[in-house]
Amino acid sequence: MPKNSKLKSILIIGSGPIVIGQACEFDYSGTQALRSLREDGIETVLINSNPATIMTDPSMADHVYLLPLTTKSLVKILKEHPQIDAVLPTMGGQTALNLCIEADEKGIWNDFGVEIIGVDIDAINITEDREKFRELMLKIGVPMAPQATAKSYLQGKEIAQKFGFPLVIRASFTLGGAGASIVYKEEDFDDLLTRGLEISPIHEVMIDKALMGWKEYELELLRDANDNVVIICTIENMDPMGIHTGDSITVAPAMTLSDKTYQRMRDMAIHMMRSIGDFAGGCNVQFAVSPDEKEDIIAIEINPRVSRSSALASKASGYPIAKIAAKLAIGYHLDELENQITKSTSALFEPTLDYVIVKIPRWNFDKFEGSDRTLGLQMKSVGEVMGIGRSFQEALHKATQSLEIKRNGLGADGKGYTNYDQIIEKLTYASWDRVFVIYDAIQMGIPLSRIHEITKIDMWFLKQYEDLYKLEKEISTYKINSIQKDLLLEAKQKGYGDRQIAHMLGCLESEVYSKREELGVNRVYKLVDTCAAEFKAKTPYYYSTFENDVELANGERYADNESVVSDKKKIIVLGSGPNRIGQGIEFDYCCVHGVLAAAECGYETIMINCNPETVSTDFDTADKLYFEPVFWEHIYDIIKHEKPEGVIVQLGGQTALKLAEKLDRYGIKIIGTTYESLDLAEDRGSFSKLLQENNIPYPEFDIAETAEQALAVSDKLDFPILVRPSYVLGGQGMKIVINKAELEKHVVDLLRSIPGNKLLLDHYLDGAIEAEADAICDGENVYIIGIMEHIEPCGIHSGDSNATLPPFNLGNLVMQQIKDHTKKIALALNTVGLINIQFAIKDDIVYIIEANPRASRTVPFIAKAYGEPYVNYATKVMLGEKKVTDFNFNPQLKGYAIKQPVFSFDKFHNVNKQLGPEMKSTGESILFIDDLKDDEFYNLYARRQMYLSK
């Protein structure tokens, strides 16, 4: 059946600000859904409060409402758009579903004659209400762990007495496993039960007998209105049950599942999906499998919506789940839709992977002082990376190289743990770095059987690790001159980086690179084609690998490279890697707009990124996507292969910026602001000299490289002193100290975690107002796109501050200084593209805190507030296609826009929630107010006093 012709206008609910448990994967799915509906001529209306996303870009939907996700906002939209026929709530995670249910309970959809599509409310209620779900599963014959529901403390105690320990407590209707925990000991039960009951919006928990050591699997399904069901992807968690899937290392396709058990699991998943309701769309089902030869299967849960894993499954398989799910929601059947990759076969097919993907989460525990770093049922990671390789080992190495935590892959970098007790402890209590600790344990000689006994990780994965370690040992017996081609090729095929091989051989990374070139051990690129090359793919979505040469009949040898280089002029955009605090979705927004602007200027666009949650890694955003680590070796090989005009680094946050020095050293053109200028802004000494020459005030400062130097500097500067390291992200390691003892302790701690760093000590301007400006500069002209005043005082990181656009409390004298300083600095730094400058204002004097000649966190916020495509303009300036004076700037904003940070402290108990110079927020929302008398502004401003009081 073709699409439902009655549907002319559809409301899509977004997922709001990014929090732990709900990140930019829903920006990706929402963006895909919007594009998919517009292809069919359907009017789209979007509500979402997150200004940093592509989804809320004016070009994405016909009507975008940047409003709080409340039923009050829904009523406002439905009154303004009486033509809305249906609501699609499955693209905005748990937030969108919860809002849809609330509106349904209040009768809002009925009042406005709006149909719910893509999901069935009864299906949501069944899957979220753990008791109803359990009853249904028993009815249809799907096994579940022994479990019972408790709606009170007393009921919970009775269940625990019946089941015994260990137990699992899961709170109903929560996000990212909030309120869930494993209880090993009776004495911990009371606290954890109370917490689960409090966190659940309906004050209900499900208590399960813990299936410790069972293996965990996820299946991604799609179903149409004709009851056709396809399984898009099977994902195996390397970690056994007990760790939230969002915090688990996951692998696709499943590696240790027998075919017989897989078929049983498939049938069970399809049976479950059909039994929960009559809806067309996506579904995610999770199972546990016993680790013995019986392979008993138990259902854990089912999510009748696009989930976090759907984004991963889409990128892993090349099958755009959200795009197809949106089509199914409006009535299409799978056999009527085309396979987006081959463009010649139908969407009613199950992808085949002739490669392996490994996803590793990215954590930010350093931002949550005092947090429990043990992983469990409540998700704690802030982002993720994905590696694609021809084998599990290669994909695992590529994923670890993508994490950006100063590791070069598994082992072979001298950074592993060497203390036996510490390794056993880290294996026993799963922590964020266990992916490396397993390698360290094998290196130390701890038997695989012991590692398996502690971690319950399947022996197949542990043997893969052991095999890697044996290879490292073998390579370490050679020197760079004596290593043979076959051994070097094997190391590269198993994912070892040149830096790691250099560590094993005791030589330089560049020597390994030269040796590879000499021996002809070169990367080749393969297509992600969804059908294991059975049909010809039209999609330019690539990953790298190493292959043995094939010898042709004529004696010619070659390795097959599927990435064909065109003769068009090309631009590479470096992505921002995994999401983390300080570098989130806003840089993905900038990268996507950079790609689109370069395409408008006639360039072939090439995107390099390794984050599966993002729009930049959608296979039809750029002309070519290389899903590769944003890691020097990988980038350099792509540049050598593609020979672009240059590389854009200023849109991908600190990740891309850190590679500027290497690009410059290797003679690769950096598009826009040069490396010299980028480095000058980062080097506090040189930058302050530049300010001095231009008569621009800055707080008194000095530089220290040891605790002794820092103490000597403190005699010249008055306390309080702001201590900050160089070249860090999101204010990492920044702290305000008020005496010598605090200063010494902090400097010693900092230099232990970031050895050899230059520390900047500033006299902290106590009680100053903070402001920031973003501007576009072409080297001659400067246009300030926005000036924001922070409601919190100077000393709270700009990412954690409520920022008001335009400023609400700065006089003409101060505003003029901000404008003058911004223009002077942008020109003095020879900026070509974007620049962000932060100011401290005290006694009507404007001091400079720092300048970043790159896209900043606030650029998307200003673009949304003023309704102007600033990244598009800035990219055209970087490419030299346009001057600032060529644009007709016309910002539109009635009243004020406030950027409001959102925190995920609820995921960490007993953590220090105090704000300071180190950023802690995970996301942001935008609030529009007509004037300063607005209650919300008044409440925010009243809280300012809390920070200012001594």
TrEMBL record:
Composed of two chains; the small (or glutamine) chain promotes the hydrolysis of glutamine to ammonia, which is used by the large (or ammonia) chain to synthesize carbamoyl phosphate. Tetramer of heterodimers (alpha,beta)4. Keywords: Amino-acid biosynthesis, Arginine biosynthesis, ATP-binding, Ligase, Magnesium, Manganese, Metal-binding, Nucleotide-binding, Pyrimidine biosynthesis, Repeat. PROSITE patterns: ATP_GRASP (PS50975), CPSASE_1 (PS00866), CPSASE_2 (PS00867), PROKAR_LIPOPROTEIN (PS51257). Large subunit of the glutamine-dependent carbamoyl phosphate synthetase (CPSase). CPSase catalyzes the formation of carbamoyl phosphate from the ammonia moiety of glutamine, carbonate, and phosphate donated by ATP, constituting the first step of 2 biosynthetic pathways, one leading to arginine and/or urea and the other to pyrimidine nucleotides. GO terms for cellular component: cytoplasm. It holds the Pfam family CPSase_L_D1. Residues 134-330, 688-879 form the ATP-grasp domain. The keyword Kinase does not apply. Belongs to the CarB family. GO terms for biological process: glutamine metabolic process; L-arginine biosynthetic process; pyrimidine nucleotide biosynthetic process. It is an enzyme of class 6 (ligase). Pathway: Amino-acid biosynthesis; L-arginine biosynthesis; carbamoyl phosphate from bicarbonate: step 1/1; Pyrimidine metabolism; UMP biosynthesis via de novo pathway; (S)-dihydroorotate from bicarbonate: step 1/3. SUPFAM superfamilies: Carbamoyl phosphate synthetase, large subunit connection domain (SSF48108), Glutathione synthetase ATP-binding domain-like (SSF56059), PreATP-grasp domain (SSF52440). It comes from Bizionia saleffrena. One of its GO terms (molecular function) is ATP binding. This is Carbamoyl-phosphate synthase large subunit. Coiled coil: none annotated. The gene is carB. It catalyses: hydrogencarbonate + L-glutamine + 2 ATP + H2O = carbamoyl phosphate + L-glutamate + 2 ADP + phosphate + 2 H(+); hydrogencarbonate + NH4(+) + 2 ATP = carbamoyl phosphate + 2 ADP + phosphate + 2 H(+). Its EC number is 6.3.5.5. InterPro entries: ATP-grasp (IPR011761), ATP_grasp_subdomain_1 (IPR013815), CarbamoylP_synth_lsu_oligo_sf (IPR036897), CPAse_ATP-bd (IPR005479), CPSase_dom (IPR005483), CPSase_lsu (IPR006275), CPSase_lsu_oligo (IPR005480), CPSase_preATP-grasp (IPR058047). Its cofactor is Mn(2+).
